[in-house]
Design a protein that fits this description.
By secondary structure, this protein is mainly alpha-helical. The protein contains 20 helices and 4 strands.
Amino acid sequence: MTETVEIPALLPALPEIVLAIGAMVLLMVGAFRGEQTAKGIEGAAILLLVLTGLIVVLLPAGKLVTFGGSFIVDGFARFLKLLALAGSAAAILMSSNYLALEKRETFEYSILILLSTTGMMMLISAADLIALYLGLELMSLALYVVAAIDRDSVRSTEAGLKYFVLGALSSGMLLYGASLIYGFTGTVSFAGIANAASQGGGGTASLGLVFGLVFLFAGFCFKVSAVPFHMWTPDVYEGAPTPITAFFAAAPKVAGIAMFVRTTIVAFPGILTQWQQIVVFVAIASMALGAFAAIGQKNIKRLMAYSSIGHMGFALVGLAAGTQQGVHGVLVYMAIYVAMTLGAFACILSMRRDGQMVEQIADLAGLARTKPTMAFFFAMLLFSLAGVPPLAGFFAKFYVFLAAIQAGLFTLAVIGVVTSVVGAYYYLAIVKTMYFDEPAKPFEPMPYELKAVLAVTGLFNLLFFVYPSPLIEAANAAAKSLF
């Protein structure tokens, strides 16, 4: 009898269980068979991520809860889990050729990404502070190791160390915030916190809760690299091997934004005005820093780091609205952001000359004459990141700004539009380098894995306006499930 009860009880967590067991099996294969299995493990890891995605899609509809209510699967979780899985699978695919050429093939690489993705999925489904912390640490510990995976490179080791030290600090702040929230509400579950927060009117309890919230948000901001906890991002992006930077820029951001949105919307709906001020400040600061700090960058990976800080600011504009439409805007933004970022990194990973990776923006000079197709797609992705219509990036910004305006946050929307215009300058500067400068020595041929990623993301970006409704409707249904 116990068996029949157990299986449905664990059904909501089936994707995570499959992914974790699969990662352990691949780890055993790698440990016993050695480095020659690296290529096979890469392929198996991608298949495992695809299988996990299928299980997420095939789970019964509606809201599923397990582990005493601390793990929840709803439309919101399904949407973001599929996005995180797609980001992780693309990252493994994009790194395959790079690792072979750099003689860095290690079977642990794909397994660490699988374990990190398991943490992301746990994080996306977390419905209390303990589950949230477990998911966060499982995701982060694997990310610290991945950042420093190139043991022979001083830059990679330094990137991993910086990320680890600052990550430990942010985890401590998040835990302190969680303990304060538990102390003032007497519960760790999001629903219980919402209940306690709405009952306790003004006074010391609400002040203590706001203090806890500030520390909790500090931890969140670190994970999504939002100002003022962004300082690790440019150094880690530049120092980590390029395919790992591509991974950092996509999937972990999805999980970070997911925990930010679910925690604020589900656990603190009663104190919207308090947390709204924090989110508005973080969004404005991130958009401004992303726009202005990237202007002087010469290294394209550092530029993408500042770009990513700015984009997290834009995504938080939707959250600042605190409405269903705002969450819908955030979800659309994240889906389009992941596609744009992966496409841009497919081009950056193709910057290889004389067997060496090059990372300077000047190395792209005259690309339109040496590699016209790559230059065209890269230019379109950069225009999209800048928010130029009718590309996908324009619609991403349109939905978050619309939500902010409908929530009465006019100043925030205006600042967002202004920083968008400033940010367009450095994207256009790269396009100018590719199309108007004298050609540099051509790059080596683009590997087919990168061609595939660039084709899919580039066409999605170009043709999104033709038929946007599947993504818009899916995001709408996902946002509705939170309210």
